[in-house]
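Why do we care about 3D structure at all? Because function follows from shape, and shape follows, mostly, from sequence. That is the central idea of this module. The next example makes it concrete: a single protein chain, its amino acid sequence, and then its structure expressed as tokens.
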Amino acid sequence: MNLTARRRLKVFGITVGVMALLLALAWWQRAPLLKGIARLYIVADSPTPADAIVILGGGVELRGLKAAELYHAGFANRILVMQPERTELNALGLIVDQAELAIQLLKLKNVPDGAIVLLESEVTSTRDEAEALAAWAKTNNAHSLLVTTDIFHTRRARWILNRKLNEVGVEARMMAVPQKKYDADNWWQAEDGVIDFQNEVIKFAVYRWRY
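And the structure:
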């Protein structure tokens, strides 16, 4: 083996050793790293007085409970409930409508009927919800909203909401809701957490590309 070959082999060995060391360090420090990634990705604003609290579609139970908590804490006197697109199964009464579930949950949490507002526009995506909220805010002269949604949904939701709500002078503050099986400190340890995180990263990329 000539001198050049030995040098190349030595460089290769050092490179492999450094990479192995970095991988070992990353594995050893995986918990702090993954916690940091989640905390960088999640948008968790502090609640401030607002014109309304919003329950985005999906995850009715936890989002609804957070909305009721914010209402009773006095941050707003109205809760807006999104109306997901109704299916034939909904019409036949075979599946309970998600909006109706949210309303019933709020009532069980002692939110009065007069404080619950069901938006009329049927929605199928976060983008639809942003448009429905912008229309409601313009009609009702609203300037600020507290939006309850899952922790990993907050970044995509804020981005699309701001694109629509800024047009009518409305600020949306994101109320990040931890899930039953995981939160920002242990999400990678739960299958649902890994799936939800990767799905939201992909969806956010798609939203940035499409809208």
